[in-house]
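Bug report

Summary: structure tokens for Major facilitator superfamily (MFS) profile domain-containing protein differ between web form and batch submission.
Environment: batch mode, default settings.
Steps: 1) Submit the sequence below via batch. 2) Compare with the web form result.

Sequence submitted:
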Amino acid sequence: MASTTLSNQPQTPSNSKARVLFASLVGTTIEFFDFYIYATAAVIIFPHLFFPASTDPTTATIQSLATFAIAFIARPIGAALFGHLGDRIGRKATLVAALLTMGISTVVIGLLPTYGQIGIAAPLLLALCRLGQGLGLGGEWSGAVLLATENAPEGKRAWYGMFPQLGAPLGFILATSSFLILGAVMSEQDFMTWGWRIPFISSALLVIVGLYIRLKLHETPAFQKVLDKQKEVNIPFKIVVTQHFPMLVLGTIAAICTFVVFYLTTVFALNWGTTKLGYARSDFLQLQLVATLCFAAFIPLSAVFAEKFGRKATSIGVCIASALFGLVFSSMLESGSTLMVFLFLCTGLALMGMTYGPIGTVLSEIFPTSIRYTGSALTFNLAGIFGASFAPLIATKLATEYGLYAVGYYLSAASILSLLAFMMIRETKHDDVNNQI
């Protein structure tokens, strides 16, 4: 009788391993593709098209990088908004909403008129779209990580958690490749007039694919337990801030190194290399594109280390390596040797892969399931404000006024700060986090 009763009970739908991993990967790939085409355009296109022609090139670049920073300020707002939805109604619906927000904002950027056409309204509209990108990505990243980790079998959370992280190098490769291909097949005038719009508009196709995959998902088992027990939190943001504030602060500081090392190696290096070191845009983008393979390769390696040695030990080791890299930052980038510059990019992006791979797992495991979306999203995106939003701008100012060595010290300082935070975060490798409602 008991077995008959149990067999008649409805079974909770489950997601296949392949669908979970692909859905978490494809979403972040799309999101970061959208994000990186803006980052590249903010350096090589927007200063010329969305700001007054009378502005000198350096000032125009700084203004363009300021719009780049807007998204990082918007990301914690998106984290709070989408985190609330994710902890109240579920991961699946929130991931769909975040992807739509990011995708629509990106497509609209590709349709915007320039400063020469509508004047000051052009940079204002650009800033508004960048705000939308930030809101969407603020909710996307954490949801994708939770989709992976909350479906992971025991002992595989770090491995599953690195799959959405692979979306970052894949998105970067797609973004950089698109600009390289367009620059090769059309004239500079056509590229600057209308060709740059193609990556932004074409992202609509990627969004459709991402939506199709995600709409077929079921809720994660961990959050389904919250729903079944009716343990949803009314205001997740309030609980995170009032009851988990130490973890919010430590998680934010711990993730700063991740952002600084990446944006100094990509956005700042691209700007400095093409304006001060004499590299052609296409040449430097090609170097970055190949070096990004190191980024992609070291993400799964970091997950292996995080499973074997622990998230904390792995992250501390990478922070030490990043601090040491800051000491040779200027000598490698200013060496005058293309090979050395390439090694600089490979080293920086390899370190990025090592720090980026485990960070999603770390930030998700330090919060209970009922507030995990909000908590992990806030920590990661607050770190984006301090570690990324103004990093290219700060680095440009430091390099201009004090020399490139000051940028290296900036990286070392950020790495040491994150190192101290990781030392105070508990090891979560053996925690049964998905039963911590």
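Above is the batch result. After comparison, the two runs are identical; trailing whitespace caused the diff. The mean pLDDT is 88. Residues 57-88 form the longest helix (32 residues).
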